[in-house]
Hints:
Oligomer: homodimer
Number of strands of chain A: 10
Number of helices of chain A: 7
CATH topology of the largest domain in chain A: Chorismate lyase
Radius of gyration of chain A: 24 Å
Structural class of chain A: alpha+beta
Number of domains of chain A: 2
Amino acid sequence: MNVETRMSWTGVRDEIRARILNRTYAPGDKLPRDEDIAAELGCARTTVQRAMQDLSLAGLVERKRKGGTHVRTDPVTRATFDIPITRREVEQRGAKYNYQLISRELEETPIEVMARFGIQRPSRMLHVKALHLADNRPYILEDRWIDTTSTPEILSVDLTRESANEWLVRHKPYSRLEVSFSAVKAEGETAKHLSAPVGSALFVIERTTWIGPAPITTVQAVAVPGYQLSARN
Amino acid sequence: MNVETRMSWTGVRDEIRARILNRTYAPGDKLPRDEDIAAELGCARTTVQRAMQDLSLAGLVERKRKGGTHVRTDPVTRATFDIPITRREVEQRGAKYNYQLISRELEETPIEVMARFGIQRPSRMLHVKALHLADNRPYILEDRWIDTTSTPEILSVDLTRESANEWLVRHKPYSRLEVSFSAVKAEGETAKHLSAPVGSALFVIERTTWIGPAPITTVQAVAVPGYQLSARN
DNA sequence: AAGTGGTCTAGACCACCTT
DNA sequence: AGGTGGTCTAGACCACTTG
Lengths: 233, 233
């Protein structure tokens, strides 16, 4: 270590991370107390604390009061994904974005949607199907349910012009979010709308939001064959 | 606001987040300077700074020196996933974990694997196929390439007893990671190994790691039909 | 009971960006 | 050139957990 070099908290973090990588601190090992590391690196304990907090969040170390800091034995692989607004995703790929409303109907909540929201009783929901296109080719098909109790304004939105996706993002903040990924087989209507061969494998993003305890919306976004979602660096 | 209440930085974060949700600060709005918020909430600027850093990381606000802090107009949906060690994932579901080595061969790097690693020239790699089982039923099929230059030790590991997955996690730290998700159709060998109907849709996790500039391993983990990956809260 | 991490504070200086 | 966020420091006290 170059003691002359001023260490920012990110610098301290990188130094500790490097030591974990090169086995100076091996998996399971107990690290020195923050104060000792601070003394060694010539910075304040606060700075070490900030660095450690980051490493802990990243799943590299585990910290316990009195117990000290330990290198995790089975480091968790933790990856963060940005789930983009479809329009922006398309435009960022340099393609022309288009949008088509397929259907829009008021319906009573079906059971599987109630399950996603975790509610016991059905209510009136707006059921919207829409297609997002990139360069005039199908890109993502969304099947969305919007709770008209928490979000009555949606009933007066012209969904032929603006996608529910964007309207909600701009006007309806949420307090809780669940996201999951899966794969489904292209069949029937889905295959037709996406112009995908029947039987091809499609990537699905499912997203559900609440405001407080109240459901807002749940959507299944089915992507065209070949779609791939990558973690942010 | 109860001025008497002591605000931790998480408390400040939650208060600001609440104000964004209830439109006290609407999308696009400029927030007061950290110092003013600190004065209002009765805490030090450092505390506000810590809170804001977190909100910024979460994608809720955008901060610029001199420019101030703004509520993001299109808040990014950001979700973090833990990609588990398969054994632990299975065991956490209360199932019995088993593992079978399918094949293990030294081969020259094929082009698509070179592309994943971002390398120009082939080298000798260990190509491993293995099956993870839950309650004796196929669960995840992995197709893995391990660079024998960066990781020669792998050649003396008994992969019939220990999965490459676990050995690598325990013995080989990485400095860079790429993760992506996609969907593939069950066909040929893959369908057979997973006992999945030909044509069903399978969820795929692709993971590639490096140590410095050197490739370590890349793996395609194909899950059984119905597999779903959820974000951590 | 004592050790270690978690957080707060007040002040200082730096770095970046807008004007 | 000036304003605002970014970070550091030293010291203090708190809170959890373990021996």
